[in-house]
Amino acid sequence: MQQIIxxxxxxxxxxxRHPLRTFLTMLGMVIGVAAVLTMIALGTGARGTVAEExxxxxxxxxxxxxxxxxxxxxxxxxxxxxxxxxxxxxxDAAAIAGEVAGIRALSPVLTLRSFATSGDxxxxxxxxxxxTSFEVVQGWSFVAGNMFAGDDAAEAVIGASLAADLFGSAxxxxxxxxxxxxxxxxxxGVTDDQSDDYAxxxxxxxxxxxxSMGIGHLDGITIAAAKAGETSRIAAEVRTLLRERHGIGSSxxxxxxxxxxxxxxxxxxxxxxxxxxxxxxxTQGLYTxxxxxxxxxxPRLDEVTLEEMAETLDRAxxxxxxxxxxxxxxxxxxxxxxxxxxxxxxxxxxxxxxxxRMATGARGSDVAAQxxxxxxxxxxxxxxxxxxxxxASAWLVAWSLGWPASVSSASMALAIGIAAAVGLLFGIYxxxxxxxxxxxxxxxxx
Length: 446
What we know:
Structural class: alpha+beta
Number of strands: 10
Largest sheet: 10 strands, mixed
Shape: elongated
Order of helices and strands: HHEHEEHEEHEEEHEHHEHHHHHHH
Distance between the termini: 33 Å
């Protein structure tokens, strides 16, 4: 251990004698380490982002609606409720948010149809009262402006089609005033949601709409699951919680299956409806018996879909990782061979120096340690340069292609560790060759 620092100094002095040769030797290591770090940075960032998008893509919503009526439910044994109900309230939404795990965001919902006017323009629109969190629930981005500021503000967000009808274009809408039901609402944003469900809808804070309607209940609650595969579980837990809160009792008597569950078969019917986005899409346009049959034969559809997407993601990620790792591995091997070649040349050039050291008492292990440390020093310097190049290239690729890049301290430590390991591995043979020189023969070398 006492010889490490002097050997490092000696190595640096030796490398400084031939700066061009040292640079060219390190180049392979620089490229290899940069490739490893770039692979880790882009792979980790992209995998995390894609996994997040997959986990919340497509079918991650759960809809809770006030009232319960299933047309034709009696034909398949579904005891539906009386239809409309006013029992769904704000505290139910708060209870769901606080007691059901796996929820990314939720929003109370109120819905009606009314005339909206701006200047001399008028349109009959669907109006929805929602919370500011509805932006997160639906994953909105905006053509212009942004979400309204609070759940009781005199502001509104409108769809792109409605913006065109009332103002001519989406960019003209922010800051303009819309009048509806005696309210004057300032438009704060225009959503770019291309869905027909929202293109011509006016969204305003749910508390503002509730106060104008003079009611205390909700029409529904829209829930976004953190993972799409958990919507079935969330829907079941929400239903159990609401039955208890509404004094209906346990849902344990209900039959399995979505439509059967809505009626509370074997007990008191629900005064609400809970359905997942996957179930809603699957049964759209079907008569009740057909819908019940389809859902009974496709239990927990969302989990199956998420599992398939996750497997596809893993296969694609593993293939890309293997490809990039092979490229980085080849670069490191080429760099290691370059280090071995230069160290063999160095042993030949310094044969007389080695003989002199051994003649004055240095052991073969001391000489071997000197050349191993020199090889590792060369490799680590190249690794540090490769680290900087890798960070720069990862940032450049992420910036130019719009890919995410994530670099952890563990990744950087791994890159330097790989560089040191390559230097050690490819420096052993030249070091052993130097340690086995005959001092007498070495001193005779010109």
